[in-house]
Specification:
- This protein has helices spanning 9-16, 38-53, 55-75, 101-112, 115-124, 127-130, 137-149, 155-169, 190-252, 270-310, 316-329, 333-351, 356-361, 370-374, 385-425, 443-468, 509-515, 524-534, 549-563, 581-593, 618-624, 639-649, and strands at 80-88, 170-174, 180-187, 426-430, 486-490, 540-544, 571-576, 604-609, 627-633, 654-660.
- By secondary structure, it is of the alpha/beta class.
- Among the domains are: 56-75 and 444-468, no CATH class; 203-419, no CATH class; 472-660, Rossmann fold, CATH 3.40.50.
- The strands form 2 sheets. Strands 5-10-9-6-8-7 form a 6-stranded parallel beta sheet, with helices on both faces. A 4-stranded antiparallel beta sheet has the order 2-3-1-4.
- α5 packs across α8 (155-169) and α9 (190-252) runs antiparallel to α10.
- The longest helix has 63 residues, at 190-252.
- The radius of gyration is 54 Å and the shape is rod-shaped.
Length: 662
């Protein structure tokens, strides 16, 4: 080796650089503000390849999420929904005094969710006993803990708690402008939910029957009481007329035995009359409700017969219809309440000496022979002013009595028409049915959701394993995180490990002899790599491998072999893998000074070195090298070590990376 005169070898190497072949030292271009959609594709590729690399972990995560989701669905409480829809309409023929449809649909919420109605529901459905029978396993554990940690609630506290529960879970939704009302409940027991909705619907219909039909019966009772009072007024006016006729007959000397007197009714006192009105109202209400129940039973029996024609006896629809029929045959709670209210009223009437049945069946249906009563055998009777006035009083009392009779008959007709139209006014469009499956969570939805969630978690899990390992697993990681250019891809077969790499030193006889061996046959990929490196303007090229130095030296040998025989004298492959700090300074000075052949040709070197982290002496060689190439192994090279190597070498000196795959 001989040194060049007047200029350093490093300055000559810079002069030999081909302009435009490297932009690492130039000013950075203006940043692009647009989103790089290639990043999305890179990470999608990472997800797919990570699933291939960790197939067992991927399947374990996927199946684990599915199994865990189904297991939790079995342990967590299930909610069943039962709902019913009925229509409130105004049948033709009802008077304008009937309740407005829109008002009734809006009032249905208050009627169903009223506290006394909720208490009746709890009693009728035996809610306190049936509620704990179908609790979910986790809720049973919660109940067991609550029973041991807190004081046992009293019966009243339990009832209040269940009233609050029903107020939240029982819902009523009126349809705007349609006249429809939908009521439903969400409970953990499907059978209990069905019973609650059936009972709530029946109680609502009974309540509306009382409000609409029974109220008319109360009006009838009041009118009949006033009719009795009007009849009493008629009897009083007739008695007054009879007294005046008797006085006139005595004055004229006639026989008073021939003068007939109208019969006088024996009527009760006002308090007893009020009791009679209340008793009759209660009896009419009970009769209307019993008639409504009979019609309801008849409808359910007809529906059951239709279902039996279509389905077998064991079909759920037939079983549900039979159960509904049995419940309809039970006496309505409203009827029971009316009977309890009627009993003390009848007892009080009996104490007053009145038979309620006899008192209610007489007095209001008597016929008056007004014209016959007012007629007299004395044609001059009209000339008596007292008798004439008494007759006018009789006519006025009779007119009032007849008016009350007409009004009572009209209200009775209204009651008959309203009772006949009640079943058409409240039409059950969708009867409550036992749910076939839970409202939430739905097993099918949970299964498919767990499949998707498990698939996503499995992809993210295996991708996290790759990313957290800080290992080079994808080609794009060279460009995105590391900022390296991919110079070429090689397979392990293309880099066979030599039997014994030469020791440290520059070009020598031992190295030249090894290069003359015919076994060094570079592949097409290595030849292409060499052609891409030829125009990069370097004198000393370092091949650095953070993983395997022997493979780096093998690549250096193959690159030299790819250069061809005509460049053998001026191109050498040298291994500095085991370089010591003592020799590092001497070798670096030799490389920095430059080497020339006897013919005056510049010598070029492809050296293989370890990373500075593996061998600190390699840093001395890398400082005097013009360029460096990193040899990285896919799935093995550490990104952290590679970043540290790039930091020590300098980003501008590293031409790129060669990726070893397979």
């Amino acid at each position: 080796m001989r040194p060049s005169g007047g200029a350093s070898a490093l300055g000559r190497r810079e002069a030999l650089a081909v302009p435009g072949t490297s932009t690492r030292g130039e000013a950075a271009p203006q940043a692009d503000t647009h989103f790089d959609w290639a990043i999305v594709g890179w990470y999608a590729q990472l997800l797919v390849h990570a699933a291939r690399r960790h197939t067992r972990l991927f399947l374990a995560l996927w199946l684990g999420v599915v199994v865990a989701s189904l297991a939790l669905a079995a342990l967590f409480p299930k909610t069943y929904e039962v709902q019913a829809t009925f229509l409130i309409q105004r049948p033709p023929g009802l008077s304008s005094g009937s309740s407005d449809v829109d008002t009734q649909t809006k009032q249905a919420v208050q009627v169903v969710l009223r506290r006394d109605n909720l208490l009746a529901l709890i009693r009728q459905t035996d809610f306190l006993t049936n509620w704990p029978l179908h609790r979910a396993p986790l809720l049973r554990v919660k109940d067991w803990l609550w029973a041991r940690l807190f004081k046992t609630p009293t019966e009243e506290e339990k009832v209040d708690g269940f009233v609050g529960l029903l107020e939240k879970q029982l819902w009523v939704t009126p349809g705007e402008g349609t006249g429809t009302v939908t009521m439903g409940v969400h409970l953990s027991d499907p059978q209990l939910a069905l019973t609650v909705v059936q009972t709530a619907l029946q109680n609502f219909l009974d309540a509306r029957h009382i409000a609409e039909i029974t109220s008319i019966g109360e009006v009838i009772s009041i009118l009949e009481g006033r009719t009795s009072a009007a009849h009493e007024a008629v009897d009083g006016s007739l008695r007054d007329l009879q007294k005046l006729r008797t006085v006139r007959a005595k004055r004229l000397g006639r026989d008073i035995r021939h003068i007939s007197a109208p019969a006088v009714a024996s009527l009760p006192d006002p308090e007893t009359e009020q009791l009679l009105v209340q008793v009759k109202s209660k009896r009419l209400a009970i009769a209307d409700l019993e008639d409504f129940q009979r019609r309801r039973i008849s409808e359910l029996e007809g529906r059951l017969q239709q279902l039996r024609v279509t389905y077998s006896e064991t079909h759920p629809a037939v079983a549900g219809a039979e159960e509904g029929l049995e419940k309809a045959r039970v006496e309505s709670p409203q009827v029971g309440a009316l009977r309890r209210e009627l009993a003390p009223l009848e007892a009080e009437l009996k104490q007053r000496g009145f038979d309620a049945t006899a008192a209610l069946s007489t007095g209001a249906t008597r016929e008056l022979a007004l014209q016959k009563t007012l007629q007299s055998e004395d044609p001059l009777e009209e000339q008596d002013p007292d008798i004439d006035f008494a007759k006018s009083q009789v006519r006025h009392a009779v007119a009032r009595y007849n008016d009350m009779l007409d009004r009572t008959a009209a209200v009775r007709l209204e009651q008959d028409r309203a009772g006949a139209a009640f079943k058409y006014r409240y039409v059950v469009l969708w009867p409550p049915q036992k749910p076939l499956g839970p409202y939430r969570p739905k097993p099918v939805q949970i299964f498919f959701a767990s499949l998707l969630a498990g698939l996503l978690l499995a992809f993210l899990g295996v991708a996290y394993v790759d990313l957290s390992s800080k290992t080079l697993v994808e080609r794009w990681q060279l460009e995105a995180p590391l900022g390296l250019e991919l110079l070429g891809r090689l397979s392990p077969a293309e880099l066979q490990t030599p039997a014994a790499p030469p020791k440290d030193g520059a070009a020598g006889a031992e190295t030249a002899a090894s290069l003359d061996k015919p076994v060094l046959i570079p592949s097409g990929a290595i030849a292409a790599l060499w052609r891409s490196l030829m125009g990069r303007g370097w004198t000393t090229l370092a091949v650095v491998s953070p993983d395997d130095g022997a493979t780096a030296f093998r690549l250096a040998q193959l690159l030299v072999a790819a250069a061809g025989e005509h460049q053998r004298p001026v191109l050498k492959a040298v291994s500095f893998l085991e370089l010591t700090l003592t020799r590092a300074g001497t070798v670096s000075q030799a490389l920095a000074a430059g080497n020339f052949t006897e013919a005056g040709e510049r010598m070029r070197f492809v050296v293989a070195t370890a990373t500075p982290a593996q061998n600190p002496a390699a840093l001395t060689i890398l400082k005097v090298s013009d360029a460096a190439v990193l040899l990285l192994q896919l799935g093995h090279s550490s990104l952290t070590d590679t970043e540290a190597t790039l930091g020590l070498l300098g980003q501008a000196k590293v031409l790129g990376a060669v990726l070893l795959e397979g």
